[in-house]
Amino acid sequence: MNEIRVEAVYQASSEPTIGRMCDIDIALASRPLTTTVGAFDVVLAFPKFEGRLPAEGYHGWLGDEDAPVALCPTHFTAHTVFTLPPALDEPIVQAELKAAVAAIRFAAARLSDALRVEQPSVGMVGHIPKVLSLTATNITQGLPLTVPEPLNPGYPIVRGLPILTADIAMSALRDGLPPARALLSQARYLTQSTNSPQPGTAILLAAVAAETYAKESLKSRRPPGSTPSVRSLQQIHGTAVDLYGPIAKVVIGRSLEQDDPALWSRLGELFRARNKMAHQLTTPTHPDARQLVIAAMRAMDWIG
Question: Are 300 and 209 in contact (CB under 8 A)?
Answer without folding.
Answer: yes
